[in-house]
Amino acid sequence: MESLEARLAGLQRGPELERIRTVAQAHVYRSAQSRESRLRWAKLCLAANRRFHGDGLWERARMRCQEFALRTWVIEHLGADADPDWNPEALANDTLTALVLEPCRAKRLAAGWRDLPIEQIGELRRHKNLTAHIGRLMPSLPPGPNRDRLASWASVRPHLP
């Protein structure tokens, strides 16, 4: 882990970051390791993921999808805590912030998505990808507005292209 952390410290962009991300993610899933070790691997994975992707719409969406999936997995399997990366409410906030459409508008657009310009179809697809984890996240959330908003997205998601 220390050698990958040192390697990551010297990198800003490039395919080496994706290798570090995937190696770190594999360690997160190893149940023989302690929770603390797995969380440290998860932090390394998140750091590499955040640096690897560019600033384009699809790159940022891919980065967020991978981040949301890992954070949800950690919350489900290793437990939530006060760290914002492992806090369900922080993840709900981050998810909702990443979504630029409102669920009702996304559902309306999705009804006729085949007739939309390619850019709008792409936007709907990004929203579908960015909400892939919410069904697994919602049981960890207390009742409230964020859970309600995510429930709206959960009902819209199957209609998105």
Keywords:
single chain; 161 residues; mainly alpha; 9 helices
Folded structure, characterized:
The protein is mainly alpha-helical and 161 residues long. Helices cover 69% and strands 0% of the residues. It contains nine helices and no strands. The chain has helices spanning 2-9, 15-28, 35-52, 57-78, 88-98, 103-111, 118-130, 134-137, 145-156. Helix 3 (35-52) packs antiparallel against helix 4 (57-78). The radius of gyration is 17 Å and the shape is globular. It starts with a helix and ends in a 5-residue tail after the last helix. The model has no long low-confidence stretch (mean pLDDT 95).
Strand percent estimate: under 5%
The rough form would be described as globular
Measured between the Cα atoms of the first and last residue, the distance is 39 Å
Radius of gyration: 17 Å
The biggest beta sheet reads: none
How are the secondary structure elements laid out?
Layout: H1 2-9, H2 15-28, H3 35-52, H4 57-78, H5 88-98, H6 103-111, H7 118-130, H8 134-137, H9 145-156
Helix pairs in contact: 2-3, 3-4, 4-5, 5-9, 6-9
In brief, what are we looking at here?
The chain has 161 residues and is mainly α. The protein has 9 helices and no strands. Helix 2 (15-28) runs antiparallel to helix 3, helix 4 (57-78) runs antiparallel to helix 5 and helix 5 crosses helix 9.
